[in-house]
Amino acid sequence: MTKDHIVFIVDDDRRIREALIELLSSHGIRVEAFGSAGDYISAEKPDAPACLILDVELPDINGLDLQRQIAEGDHPPIVFITGHGDIPSSVKAIKRGAVDFLTKPFSEADLMAAIRMALAQDWKTRSERADINALKRRYLELTQREREVLPLVVSGLLNKQAAAELGISEVTLEIHRRNVMQKMAAASFADLVRIAERLEIPITHSRRTGGHGS
């Protein structure tokens, strides 16, 4: 692990925080620790792959409640730690996306395994988000006509059907299609279809032909 990662710790027990800081630092991991959920929420956080080690019992906001509150935002994967673990709480936490639910005292091996899993998960999430954002930027570079051509083309309509739907010639349709392929950096038609699916572009079928036709 490298300093490119960061692990956030939220635990109201100072001794636990200090022990975790020492342990993770020995593994070359950058650490930021907080004594309450409120301190964590209000803190400015670096834009880096991260993991949140979160105690269940906190003085202000219960750890499970915090998990629910931040569920809609971009937050790092959570590893719960607790001295009062119970099966219903652990099941609830895991169902909401927690990577693991460790009961104190937990082993260093179990904690490090959970952290590695959480960091790998965050790397993947960030990579996928970056890919989607890049696709969105390319999509915004399309002209209005090219945005009309894209859903027709990926629906599987023939060029003549798509052209008829838009009231343009097949030659013009083909020009727009090539421009879309180039701007979206699609290596093939199948690649363009996958891009449209990732951008959740509605597939449009011709109203004139009523489907694919031949």
Automatic annotation (TrEMBL):
It holds the Pfam family Response_reg. Transmembrane segments: none annotated. The modification 4-aspartylphosphate is found at D55. The lineage of its organism: Bacteria, Pseudomonadati, Pseudomonadota, Alphaproteobacteria, Hyphomicrobiales. Residues 6-119 form the Response regulatory domain. CDD domains: LuxR_C_like, REC_FixJ. One of its GO terms (biological process) is regulation of DNA-templated transcription. Keywords: DNA-binding, Phosphoprotein, Transcription, Transcription regulation, Two-component regulatory system. One of its GO terms (molecular function) is DNA binding. Residues 135-200 form the HTH luxR-type domain. This is Response regulator.
